[in-house]
Design a protein that fits this description.
3 copies of one chain form a homotrimer. Helices cover 20% and strands 37% of the residues of chain A. Chain A has 175 residues and is of the alpha+beta class. In chain A, the strands form 2 sheets. Chain A has a 6-stranded antiparallel β-sheet, with helices on one face. Chain A has a 3-stranded antiparallel β-sheet with strand order 4-10-6, sandwiched between helices. In chain A, strand 8 and strand 9 (136-137) form a beta hairpin. Chain A is globular, with a radius of gyration of 19 Å. Chains in contact: A-B, A-C, B-C. Chains A and C meet through strand 1, strand 2, strand 3, strand 5 and helix 3 of A and strand 5, strand 6, strand 7, helix 2 and strand 8 of C. Strand 7 (78-79) of chain A pairs antiparallel with strand 1 (5-6) of chain B, so a sheet runs across the interface.
């Protein structure tokens, strides 16, 4: 069996976008973070809220997409103690030192020894689609958008696309 | 280290919305449920289907977002036996009485002792984006949208946003 | 307690769609696969990329929805060794032979003995919403859209909806 992974290759890189028709706006940008540990949780909420603010979209959706297999995004509280628990849980749920074939040179050409990171990211998920209303993110009081670095330290990128209505200005509707 | 969690505070509460441009409709509402047990599964399907019906949207997307960190939404069958299995599985996967720092007053100012609820919700996910076609939800025959109360009893709210095309009336397309 | 599951029944089947207003396109199609093992991972990336290509949408979102409770979709690398690890992990996480009530004729009218498949699908998730930009999917280099058959062999269908802007032709914007 092949030791290699199939690669997804776009023909052109995904550029920043700002398209609009009849009040509908689609806008996309890239968010980059630097991580410093193998497993690290990074709060993306403020950065995403800023992109929403800058988009001019009043009502719509925002997709946040991790461009990596070993980096996830999820919702939870941003508390140091809870983040320690999340890391403990991930260690319990997926053993770093399990007999994973992805870490075995006989079966895999990946030398990162990171099967655990793949499995942990799969559990947490690689993307989410949030709502925008009144030109702000819809999030509960304790909810934060958290990136999970699972095989760092690395530079990690997230593609963010906003799709919605720009109501301010000439298209503004009475409320 | 701080025992507190960072709070997400919108400047204005997320209100009901109904915006439209050139046949595109964006409409958002809040769904509220009361739960009666600490861990409880509530079938939201009919309530969501009713919101779709009332929206006038024929083709589009509907985002369902739990506004809470310890309340999830997921897809599964609605059967009493299976729901008992889901609860057993959540107990196996995340121990209620593990040595979680979030439950330790030395490290956390949260007095709900609910680290398990945070971790279980993280596994199930806090949101989903469904399709609408022919003015109805797209769901498989056995699929139901299920809310997981993981730290009840509580009042729980879900923000629902519908984004799509209204084809009936003057904008109706030939099929 | 009832042994039966509640069924979701659309009034009309979800048909293929192509609707448009002012440059906005909503298009939906069904993707079908045949699986050959009880637990099998199937790479859907090329099939989904082809639907994007055929849609004429330049910027937008694409929702991929498994129409089944025991068939999931998730993101990961497409490597034989890693896929073996994913299957091992699912076996570790949810025991096939656990004392699940869904498999017990005393409590359930399901004779597929597939509680494990329900729980595993719940962990992986039944849907995802991806981004489209420049008329191509947004995916990281190693990311693939993977379907997880968890109770095969079966015929499995996925509903795919694309919502976005068609910019080529008269609506083409300068970049």
């Amino acid at each position: 069996m092949s030791k290699s992974s199939t690669v997804f290759a776009r023909q052109t890189p995904a550029k920043d976008r700002h398209e609009t028709t009849g009040g509908l706006v689609i806008r996309a940008e890239t968010l980059t973070i630097e991580t410093h540990q193998r497993v690290e949780l990074v709060d993306l909420t403020e950065a995403i809220a800023k992109l929403v603010e800058g988009s001019g979209v009043d009502e719509g959706l925002i997709s946040v997409w991790s461009m990596h297999t070993t980096c996830a995004v999820f919702i939870n509280e941003n508390q140091t103690a809870l983040h320690a628990d999340i890391k403990s849980f991930l260690e319990q749920a997926v053993s770093r030192d399990g007999k994973w074939m992805h870490n075995d040179p006989e079966h895999s050409d990946c030398d990162r020894n990171n099967a655990d990171a793949h499995l942990r990211a799969m559990l947490l998920g690689h993307s989410m689609t949030l709502q925008i209303t009144g030109a702000e993110l819809v999030l509960g009081q304790w909810q934060r958008v958290i990136a999970a670095e699972l095989d760092g330290p690395r530079t990690r990128t997230f593609r963010v696309q906003i799709q919605g209505l720009q109501i301010h200005g000439p298209n503004r509707r009475a409320e």
